[in-house]
């Protein structure tokens, strides 16, 4: 086949960018649904006890740690894969269906004994985590491979993060209403949640397949792509800038607590799932605006400066939110919006710094390891989410909250501390490793 004929099959850069952004939107639609509402579903509809939620917290934490360990393994498999579709795109194709299936099963806990419910949840959650890792690691690696120009790639990452925030908003604001619409009663039921999550999972992962159909991996002459385990981990450990991003990200796990625990907190604080609509809207609007704003900021200052600045400012905002309290929801919404902006900036900068670090190690060693390097992005996200769930779940258990109990002010403030002071300390500490982020020359 001639070069011209081969190039004719390559989608335009614009088509690839739009497809990646839409695929990320679909993926985030599913991810947000699971991470935001799983605890609410288990508490309110599967009706697990406080002891059951403690077990769930342990299961999620252990599963997230397993997923975090599995990420580099997945990245290694990607880097050693060779097919006619490339090394990244096949995993996107074959992981979409399992993610959709297990996401739905997580919200279809059978009406059996609590032990049976916990076993069912644990098995489905572990399998969901494995499937999601298989789709997420190659997705981010594909962004680095398909878009080699740093500035254009940064715009793609910004758009992916921004539309991921929009997906977060649609899922956060719309899922409770969709679950109610699909319930056979005037009130939301567990069956309504099962149907709603099933619909969203099929739609979201269907959109995700655009990353397979409309993108192509780039291969540059003189760069080594087929790597051994020793080369993979050797170049990873030599990539000091990448390691600094990883450490700083994990230490900043507190940024995720509002996302994983916000829906439960509004039930405890305001006795209304609907109140999370306002909380969710505030953080989402902040994240989306910041995602579009960050490329402009990166033209005026370095990614390192933005990473440190967003962390320190985020710490100050979380501390101020605690002092302001939650009685006045309007004031709380302002702080949630501002912390959402710092989170949006951080997420764009984080992915951009990892992509730059991958390019840097390629220049210095001649080795391109998209799979294992971008698996670290999923690794830190899984680890941050695991720590966020662990901390928030621990505070819920300490507060003694479960469905049907009488909520006390002490219970409300105990949970509120986990959403404010813990993230404040976490953000502040996370700024330290970014001080040592220096790219090689």
From TrEMBL:
Keyword Transmembrane attached: yes
GO biological process, one term: sodium ion transport
UniProt cross-references to InterPro entries, sorted A to Z: Acrflvin-R, MFS_2, MFS_trans_sf, Na/Gal_symport
Domain of life: Bacteria
Entry keyword set: Membrane, Symport, Transmembrane, Transmembrane helix, Transport
A Pfam family annotated for this UniProt entry: MFS_2
GO (cellular component) term, any one: plasma membrane
Keyword presence, Membrane: yes
Transmembrane residue ranges: 20-46, 52-70, 91-112, 118-142, 162-180, 192-212, 242-270, 276-298, 305-323, 329-355, 376-401, 413-437
Molecular function in Gene Ontology: symporter activity
Name of this chain's protein: MFS transporter
Native source organism of the sequence: Agromyces mariniharenae
